């Protein structure tokens, strides 16, 4: 079972809903849970919860992790395979002075094979990620981003600007993906993060046009 963590104040709910809808449409069994439903568990109950999900055939567990919950000891027993960090420095509800400490805690939840998906438009975060040994894939409205968009009108065009590897090490060449879905209700960064997650899990976004995206 693959464990994904979506961490931040903003964007994690939309990103989780998009990921769940997209991956479920391909036949994957996806379970989404909020960290607030986990932090009251002790270590053994948390391990039992993960074991039960595996027995039930869950392919992907997506945990929406609030910044305020990162300090919970329950995450000491957690290893995140794919981390999406949606926090944006400069927002009113973000304490930029503590971003470095948050990132240290986030990185402690990952091993050397874990993948980090990060918003490169957050310049403070980009600085903190410098030198990190994990495989990092970036998204955003930036010429240096791995994943960006060229259109947010009637169709959402995602552009993979440079080659990336999926979770199995298969190389994905630069290309465009046209998404004929109602994107007006979603933040563009959430869409790019979710599409990046889908791609590294072997999903071709061009096949998800008819997916009923959950709000």
Report on this structure.
By secondary structure, the protein is an alpha/beta fold. It has one domain: UDP-N-acetylmuramoyl-L-alanine:D-glutamate ligase, CATH 3.40.1190.10. It has 5 helices and 11 strands; from the N terminus they run βαβαββαβαββββββα. It has helices spanning 12-24, 43-55, 99-108, 123-129, 188-200; strands at residues 2-7, 30-34, 60-65, 80-85, 110-119, 135-139, 147-152, 156-160, 164-165, 171-172, 175-179. The strands form 3 sheets. A 6-stranded parallel sheet has the order 2-3-1-4-5-6, sandwiched between helices. β5 (110-119), α4 and β6 (135-139) form a beta-alpha-beta unit. α1 packs across α5. The longest helix has 13 residues, at 12-24. It is globular. The model has no long low-confidence stretch (mean pLDDT 85).
- The radius of gyration over CA amounts to 16 Å
The 3D shape can be described as globular
Largest sheet: 6 strands, parallel
> What is the CATH class name?
Alpha Beta
> Percent of residues in helical segments?
25-40%
């Amino acid at each position: 079972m693959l464990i994904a963590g979506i961490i931040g104040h903003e964007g994690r709910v939309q990103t989780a809903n998009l990921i769940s809808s997209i991956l479920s449409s391909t036949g994957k069994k996806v379970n989404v849970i909020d960290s607030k439903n986990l932090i009251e568990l002790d270590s053994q109950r948390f391990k039992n919860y993960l074991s039960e999900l595996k027995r039930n055939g869950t392919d992907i567990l997506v945990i929406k992790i609030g910044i305020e919950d990162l300090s919970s000891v329950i995450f000491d027993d957690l290893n995140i395979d794919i981390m999406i960090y949606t926090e944006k420095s400069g927002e009113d509800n973000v304490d930029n002075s503590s971003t470095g400490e948050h990132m240290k805690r986030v990185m402690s939840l990952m091993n050397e094979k874990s993948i980090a998906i990060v918003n490169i438009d957050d310049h403070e975060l980009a600085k903190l990620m410098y030198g990190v040994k994990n495989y990092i894939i970036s998204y955003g409205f930036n010429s240096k981003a791995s994943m960006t968009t060229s259109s947010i009108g009637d169709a959402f065009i995602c552009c993979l600007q440079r080659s990336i590897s999926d979770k199995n090490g298969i190389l994905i060449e630069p290309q465009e993906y046209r998404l004929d879905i109602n994107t007006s209700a979603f933040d563009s960064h959430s869409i790019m993060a979710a599409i990046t997650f889908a791609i590294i899990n072997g999903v071709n976004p061009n096949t998800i046009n008819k997916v009923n995206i959950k709000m």
